[in-house]
Structures are given as structure tokens and as C-alpha cells.
């Protein structure tokens, strides 16, 4: 047999290639082997009919949490990822230098999902959210953060800082930003800065960032955001930073995504570079996040195009984590991570972080997930 697995008849959408066509997708030895309008079924050991379905690269969730309070999604990580088409998950700073070994032992070493991690500037990480992890700046550990990244390059890809009210003291000024920059430069990695309810305007935060760094929760509605306090237009500094290669990530979460503000930003012509969930177990079970396809569906119903949405959960985050061409694409030779969705039509209720409801007419539903060329999840109604 030429191929191990053949997906026949799907609508292939890979905006980062770019590729959008009805075609068959063949997989061999864990890699994408061929993509063509008609590949003979006899050439494959196994054939799955995906007619009428969307076939795209396995999703990359650039911002989620597996180890908040030293547990969170933990053993649930694989089930949550596989059933939502996510084959690569980025933990956005759940652990710091003092707690990273726990994340490795209890999550990374026990999970099938491809895990990458930002290491928190605070040595504590997010072990006790009732008290901001940098309210006492002595917990900032740039040297330990950089060392942890250098010694764990199979997992660790960057530095995380939450630069928000009640996380860093009001008197801190720009010191947390300086320390995060120091850690990232020592390890030669990007920094991800959480800006919800930030203590300083976004332009001042951007002064510490370089191309490849990430501004996360960019669609929050609080005072210091991408539209400034008056929310009349996108700040010039934001446009300039995005053009220069600083990545703006939406990261939905429990308080960072309200429909009215997202509509304002989209109407102003601004689209985030990446779409992520900020998923944790409470927001996965009780909402309003639930999973990455739900977040994608919200943005579809708010006016983003399907290809724009898929680009921001595949090729764009792959580039952000230094895996462009290897992940986030269906090009022959890439790792065979594949997500298959149905685009359901009807009346669907979506909820934002302020409990606003929106009735949408389309919703992405996961039907099949392949990781490294093997079936990792198949929706029950699609099983034969």
C-alpha cells in the first residue's frame, strides 16, 4: 500500500499554504503524503469518507492552562484537546521556575497532545490565584525562568507575564515588563504579556516588546486596551506593532471577550493574529469558552471569514511557536495532524464573558482528529 490512511472527498482548507479545494488527503508514516483531487482508495490501507466536511490542519491553541493551582485540566487535557481538533496546546504560564517540574511530570509526561509551555516570570506560576503571583516582586525570577526554558527546550518556548491590576503592585511601574524582557532575552525566546486590566496604556507596554512577542487578551473591554480609554479607534501604536510582527492573540478566557467590543474591533478593521481559548477546566465545563471550535464559531458569527478564522488557529500560531511548515499545514511532508469539522447551520446560542447572548447561524463541530497520522478522536455519529 502506498498510504496508511486516506481521507476522501473533503473540503481542504489550509490558508497558510494557501490551499482551498475539494480533494483527497493521503497520509503515510505520520506525515502528509499527498493531496490531490482523486487518490484511488485501493492505494490506502484505510479509507475514511469525509465528504461534505471541512478538512484543515490540526488546531493549535496558543493560550490555555493545564496546571493552574497545580492541577486544573491535568489528566483531562487529552480528552479536551482530541475532541476539539486541537493537536498542539500551549500552556500560557501555569508554572514558573519553582513549579515547572510538576507540570512536566504530571501533565507533559502523561499526555499525548503536543504540549508547549510559556514559563511564568513568577517562580510560583499560577499556583494560588487569590493572591497575584507578582504582588511581591521578589517572586519574579528572570534568571530561574531563563534557566528553566534553556533546560527544557522540548517543552518551554517563552516567558509569560500577567501585567494586570491585582497581579502586580500599583507601584511596580514598568519593572515587571523589564524583568520579563530580561528573562526572554537571556533564553532567546519570545515573551507573552497578558494585558487585561493593565496598569499602563498599551503603547507603554509595546515599548518592551519585539517582533515575535505576543500581546494576549487583546480583545478585552477594560480601560487600557487596543482602542484606548475612549474606544473610538484602534491605537496607531497597535497597528504599527502588528505590522512590525508583534502578535496579537485574542485568548477568550473568563473575562477577556465581550461581543460588543469584539464587534467594534472587527468593524474597525482589526483582526487578532491568533485565536485561542485561555482554556481552564472551569471555563471548559461551565463556559463561556468550552473549547477552541466554539471560540472559532463565535468569531465566524461576528463576521470573520472561515479562512481567516482557520488561519489563526493553524499557520499563524505555528509560526508563533517556531513550528511553521512542520505544524499548522497540510502540505506534503508536514506532520499529519488533521482536524475534520462539519459546519452546522441553524440557530445556536453563544455567550460571552459578560453573559451577553448571541444567536449564531453557523457552528463548527469536530468530527475527526488525527495526530501524527493516527485517528485520535472520532465523533460517535461518524463511527461505522
Q: What does this protein look like?
A:
The chain is built from eleven helices and 15 strands. Strand 2 and strand 3 form a beta hairpin. It folds into two domains: 5-56 and 332-382, Urease, subunit C, domain 1 (Roll); 59-320, Metal-dependent hydrolases (TIM Barrel, Alpha-Beta Barrel). Helix 3 runs parallel beside helix 4. It is 22% helix and 27% strand. The protein is of the alpha/beta class and 384 residues long. Strands 1, 2, 3, 4, 5, 13, 14 and 15 form an eight-stranded mixed β-sheet that branches. A seven-stranded parallel β-sheet has the order 6-7-8-9-10-11-12.
CATH topology of the largest domain: TIM Barrel
Distance between the termini: 22 Å
| pLDDT < 50 stretches | none
The CATH top-level class label of the largest domain: Alpha Beta
Q: What is the H-and-E element order?
A: EEEEEEHEHEHEHEHEHEHHHHHEEE
Q: Which oligomerization state do the chains in this entry correspond to?
A: single chain
Question: Which strand-content bin applies to the residues?
Answer: 25-35%
Main attributes?
TIM Barrel; Urease, subunit C, domain 1; 7-stranded parallel sheet; 15 strands; alpha/beta; 8-stranded mixed sheet; 384 residues
Summarize the structure.
With 384 residues, this protein is α/β, with parallel strands linked by helices. The chain has two domains: 5-56 and 332-382, Urease, subunit C, domain 1, CATH 2.30.40; 59-320, TIM Barrel, CATH 3.20.20.140.
